[in-house]
């Protein structure tokens, strides 16, 4: 992988050099990990005119959750654990005769930006923008392999839960059990806070689990994902508890399922982000569920659970092959509950079979 990280840093170097900067400072943790292989807590990456340096407040521990730094990188541990690596990097860049340093202004606080200017007043600071995020958009096959394993772990954890007795258990208990099962099956941890919603809470996006207990006839909505070697996936499913579903539950489920299928089928290279959103959204709009729909039908996943692209009504841009995204429409009826169906897929051309579905737990409406 060392060569992969070196190539990524080279691509970024070409971008900031073309914009007139002699060096760049990457501080957003996911971006540091993408370029350096590992991102110990608080670490930043300085790409200099001569060599690249990973600056860490403390020595890397090798914790899998943080990754392993590229062995080709110089790793500097700050002499004082409370020193700011961003400020240290500014002084180091000045010492390397860099006249202009590109920084991630969207990640830096105003106070850190000022501290850099005070330490290196002759160093001009420019905005690196979202250059690294743009590089991260299209995944290589090794990244997709990590996402595929994350999805397998997530499917396993969810499948085991469905085989257990659910009535009488709380949302909070079920969420904790799912997160434990993710780790048991090899995840570094959950990709995000697991959401479990029952009855009137079902169908809500990112619902924080409560002490409400599962009851007969409830809709049960679950949204979870595994973090495997830094790569994060997402799955969401809705079930009926204990009895055959009521007519209104079947009707609502079939509607959301049709919307989710339309969104998945729209995932082709060259498709506009907004068109994928429209493919799913217009079915729900036409059925009278305009109010309360999610702001986006889906989003990119990778080293972060919510990254570009955004599949939303006003989103600009078009899909490329090898971009992993979620498709996750949902409808919530206040006081009654609702349905969310969420998959992680990889955009593939038709010649390669179309979008690759990573999360494969059944989308049939099961009565558990």
UniProtKB/TrEMBL annotation:
Residues 146-348 form the Peptidase M24 domain. It comes from the Bacteria. Residues 8-138 form the Creatinase N-terminal domain. Pfam families: Creatinase_N (PF01321), Peptidase_M24 (PF00557). SUPFAM superfamilies: Creatinase/aminopeptidase, Creatinase/prolidase N-terminal domain. This is M24 family metallopeptidase.
């Amino acid at each position: 992988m060392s060569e992969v990280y070196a190539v990524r840093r080279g691509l970024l170097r070409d971008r900031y050099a073309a914009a007139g900067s002699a060096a760049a400072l990457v501080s957003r943790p996911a971006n540091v990990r993408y370029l350096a292989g590992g991102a110990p807590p608080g670490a930043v990456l300085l790409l200099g005119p001569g060599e690249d340096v990973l600056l860490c407040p403390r020595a890397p521990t090798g914790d899998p959750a943080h990754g392993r730094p590229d062995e080709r990188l110089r790793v500097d541990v700050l002499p004082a654990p409370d020193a700011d690596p961003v400020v240290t990097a500014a002084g180091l860049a000045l010492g390397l005769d860099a006249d202009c340093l590109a920084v991630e202004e969207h990640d830096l606080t105003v106070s850190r930006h000022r501290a850099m200017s005070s330490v290196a007043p002759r160093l001009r600071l420019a905005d690196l923008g979202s250059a690294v995020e743009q590089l991260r958009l299209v995944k290589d096959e090794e990244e997709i392999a990590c996402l595929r394993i994350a999805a397998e772990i997530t499917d396993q954890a969810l499948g085991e839960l469905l085989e257990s007795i659910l009535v009488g258990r709380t949302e909070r208990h079920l969420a904790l059990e799912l997160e434990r099962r993710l780790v048991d099956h090899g995840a570094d941890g959950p990709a995000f806070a697991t959401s479990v919603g029952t009855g009137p809470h079902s169908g809500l996006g990112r619902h924080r689990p409560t002490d409400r207990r599962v009851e007969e006839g409830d809709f049960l909505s679950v949204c979870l994902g595994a973090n495997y070697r830094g790569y994060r996936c997402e799955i969401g499913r809705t079930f009926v508890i204990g009895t055959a579903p009521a007519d209104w539950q079947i009707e609502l489920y079939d509607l959301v399922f049709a919307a989710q299928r339309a969104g998945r089928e729209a995932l082709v290279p060259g498709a506009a982000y907004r068109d994928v959103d429209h493919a799913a959204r217009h079915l729900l709009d036409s059925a009278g569920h305009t109010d309360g729909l999610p702001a986006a039908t889906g989003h990119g996943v990778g080293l972060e659970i919510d990254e570009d692209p955004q599949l939303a009504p006003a989103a600009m841009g078009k899909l490329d092959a090898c971009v992993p995204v979620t498709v996750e429409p949902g409808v919530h009826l206040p006081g009654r509950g609702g349905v969310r169906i969420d998959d992680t897929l990889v955009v593939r051309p038709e010649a390669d079979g179309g979008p690759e579905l990573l999360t494969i737990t059944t989308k049939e409406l099961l009565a558990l």
